[in-house]
Specification:
- With 230 residues, this protein is an all-alpha fold.
- It has one domain.
- The protein is built from eleven helices and no strands.
- Helix 3 packs parallel to helix 9, helix 4 packs across helix 9 and helix 5 runs antiparallel to helix 9.
- The protein starts with a helix and ends with a helix.
- The relative contact order is 0.21.
């Protein structure tokens, strides 16, 4: 039982600390070259880039893990993931198409805090702090908006051509959803397996404390970047 919990937490650790991606919330060299050179509609490549960005988007995935950690019904998982999708899709399109610029360090710092918030909420901290449970659905939508601005900020770095930009954005967003779906399948399989053991509840507090810690580390890293480069 404890081996299952240790394995799950180890996977979480790898998501944040095992590669240079953990603190380089950007794109790889090949993707960067493509985006800088692209001048027209490229549905396939933008689908792929969106999917890859989400699959390797440790911050988005850690937040979603916190959201679904205590959701046991498929209907609830679908609802909350859909709310998150609506939130980040709105600000992705609004941000890019209307040139709404947000400092990348600050927006990524807020995304880090969203992970802290969800882990703290899962521990019952918000209810103890405020005396009532804040609306979890509204919180997911609001943080989804911030996550979407993170995606929009990333895309705006490449000054893509405005002609038919919405088509590439739509392809990118669909790719993001496909990547999110793929990642969630593996996360849900892992959670479903772990929930069969008593260690799930025994280690649930530790896991959500880890989520808070990871979020705080990401927040601190981005704030250091903002103070140095912002």
């Amino acid at each position: 039982m404890f081996k299952v919990a240790n394995m799950f937490v180890s996977v979480l650790l790898l998501c944040v600390f095992s590669s240079s991606v953990a603190f380089a919330h950007g794109v790889d060299a090949n993707t960067e070259r493509f985006l800088l050179a692209n001048e027209g509609v490229a549905i396939g490549p933008f689908l792929y880039i969106g999917a890859k960005h989400m699959v390797t988007g440790y911050d988005h995935l850690l937040f979603l893990l916190g959201v679904i950690f205590f959701l046991f019904r498929k209907r609830e998982v679908l609802l909350y993931v859909s709310l998150f999708t609506v939130g980040h899709s709105i600000t992705l399109f609004l941000g890019v198409l209307n040139n709404i610029s947000v400092d990348p360090y600050l927006i990524d710092a807020i995304i880090g805090l969203s992970i802290v918030y969800k882990g703290f909420d899962n521990l019952g901290g918000l209810k103890r702090l405020f005396g009532f449970q804040p609306n979890t659905q509204i919180a997911v939508v609001v943080f989804g908006l911030f996550h979407g601005f993170g995606l929009a900020t990333k895309i705006q770095d490449f000054a893509l051509p405005k002609t038919d930009l919405w088509k590439n954005l739509l392809a990118f967003n669909v790719g993001v959803e496909l990547g999110q779906f793929l990642a969630l399948v593996f996360i849900l399989i892992g959670l479903s397996f772990w929930r069969r053991h008593r260690s799930f509840y025994a280690f649930s507090n530790i896991t959500n404390t880890f989520l808070m810690t990871a979020g705080l580390i990401l927040f601190g890293y981005q704030m250091v970047g903002y103070s140095v480069y912002g």
